[in-house]
Specification:
The protein is an alpha+beta fold. It has two domains: 2-101, ADP-ribosylation fold; 127-188, no CATH class. It has helices at 50-56, 102-110, 115-124, 129-139, 143-152, 164-181; strands at residues 2-8, 25-27, 44-46, 66-79, 88-99.
Length: 193
């Protein structure tokens, strides 16, 4: 048995339109393959690392997808990209254990030590008010990731054109804003921020 994560459309359907239910066992027949773009592709696809899910599904279109924690079993195939960062699996059978909340998804990825997973969260997932600041706080020691967060989540479209001192000052300003807002009521940050 393997615990993993599978992304779904906002209505809970798969990329192919299948509707899977929590707690029910689903099984496919045939040879299991994890080869995207291959006619022999077969099985229930998922990732063991929730952050890797962002690589295989488009999340940042303003519509929040569903992600389920799954339990996979049976014949399993695995493929990873050349860097080993985007490992995906296909298994003969899966059970959807539960739908993850937006907060569970963000918390799980923010706990990651992988800068690639954090970059995928930044580039491919909708973040709201305090979540943007939590991500900025999490990556503040990584200049490249900090610039990505400021560009994609805070709207500083000129961040890559600023000189070193200007970037440093902008990061300092946002981190100061983060510190000023820590511990304030959750209503300060809502999904409209």
């Amino acid at each position: 048995m393997i615990i993993g994560y599978k992304a779904f459309n906002p209505d809970g359907t798969t990329r192919y339109g299948d509707k899977l239910e929590i707690g029910k066992l689903y099984t496919v027949s045939g040879i299991i393959h994890t080869r995207f773009g291959d006619d022999q592709n077969n099985g229930y696809h998922y990732c063991k690392d929730i952050g890797a899910v962002f690589r295989f599904f488009d999340f940042d279109d303003g519509v929040e997808p569903k992600i389920a924690r799954i339990i996979a079993s049976g014949d399993t195939d695995r493929v990873e990209d050349i860097t080993g960062d985007y490992e995906t699996f296909a298994s003969r059978s899966i059970i959807l254990e539960k739908w993850l909340t937006h907060e569970e998804i963000v918390d799980t990825v923010l706990a990651s030590i992988s800068s690639i997973r954090l970059a995928l969260l930044c580039n491919n997932f909708v973040l709201y008010g305090d979540e943007k600041y939590r991500l900025l706080d999490r990556v503040k020691c990584d200049n490249g990731l900090t610039k990505e967060v400021l560009y994609y989540k805070f709207g500083y479209k000129n961040i890559y054109y600023l000189d070193y001192d200007e970037k440093k000052e902008l990061i300092k300003t946002e981190m100061k804003r983060l510190e000023e807002n820590k511990g304030k009521s959750k209503t300060l940050f809502n999904k409209n921020n």
